[in-house]
């Protein structure tokens, strides 16, 4: 059902291309994923009556419960109506946690990748013939090594940090 125009080698400029199908759109969605745009004004909203000290107390309380920095932000946004912690306090959530000595030992994205690798490895112990999971595990572990190398250069993890699949479950415990 393509709408091609017959052409000879002389009339190549007049070729009509097939209509754009959903295949092209799905590729574009991967290249440009949807995300919300932050407001240009960096001041806290006028309707927000919470003080910066209250927000910091909330962050510390949620961190002591064991929440990650991103889940703290989601909780503050959804339950307490604080759209952006940085606009209210002047600091990001992780900086507030670091100043109070509650920052996680390894960065959150690296921690979640290690957790995913442990889950896939556990799955592979039961399902040894799962070739796709084995391939995905290789991709996840290369992502871990790449991210660890980046964090070592930024000095956010110790230079002696080394991901090892045998001891990975102790990292996420």
Describe the fold and architecture.
This protein is elongated. Helices cover 53% and strands 0% of the residues. Among the domains are: 52-99; 108-171, Helix Hairpins. The model has no long low-confidence stretch (mean pLDDT 86). It is mostly helical and 173 residues long. The protein has eight helices and no strands. α6 runs antiparallel to α7.
What is the name of the CATH class of one domain?
Mainly Alpha
**Average of per-residue pLDDT values:** 86
Q: Output the CATH homologous superfamily of one domain.
A: S15/NS1, RNA-binding
**How many β-strand stretches?**
0
Radius of gyration: 24 Å
Which band does the percent of strand residues land in?
under 5%
Q: What sort of overall outline do the alpha carbons produce when their principal axes are compared?
A: elongated
Number of helices: 8
Distance between the termini: 56 Å
- Quote the CATH topology of one domain: Helix Hairpins
Low-confidence spans: none
Helix content: 40-55%
Q: What is the string of helix and strand elements?
A: HHHHHHHH
**Could you describe the largest sheet, including whether it forms a barrel?**
none
CATH architectural arrangement of one domain: Orthogonal Bundle
SSE blueprint and pairings:
Layout: H1 22-31, H2 52-64, H3 69-79, H4 85-89, H5 93-99, H6 108-126, H7 131-153, H8 168-171
Helix pairs in contact: 2-3, 6-7
Keywords:
173 residues; mainly alpha; Helix Hairpins; 53% helix; ribonucleoprotein; structural constituent of ribosome; uS15_NS1_RNA-bd_sf; Small ribosomal subunit protein uS15 N-terminal domain-containing protein
């Amino acid at each position: 059902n393509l709408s091609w125009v017959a052409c000879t080698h002389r009339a190549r400029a007049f070729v009509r291309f097939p209509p754009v199908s959903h295949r092209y759109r799905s590729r574009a969605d991967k290249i440009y994923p949807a995300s919300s745009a932050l407001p240009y004004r960096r001041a806290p909203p006028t309707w927000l009556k919470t003080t910066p000290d209250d927000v910091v107390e909330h962050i510390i309380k949620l961190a002591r419960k064991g929440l990650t920095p991103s889940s703290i932000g989601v909780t503050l946004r959804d339950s307490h109506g604080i759209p952006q912690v940085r606009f209210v306090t002047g600091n990001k959530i992780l900086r507030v946690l670091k100043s109070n000595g509650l920052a996680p030992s390894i960065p959150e994205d690296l921690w979640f990748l290690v957790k995913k690798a442990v889950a896939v490895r556990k799955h592979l112990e039961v399902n040894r013939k799962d070739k796709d999971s084995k391939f995905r595990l290789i991709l996840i572990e290369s992502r871990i090594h790449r991210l660890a190398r980046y964090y070592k250069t930024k000095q956010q993890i110790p230079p002696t940090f080394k991901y090892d699949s045998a001891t990975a479950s102790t990292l996420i415990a």
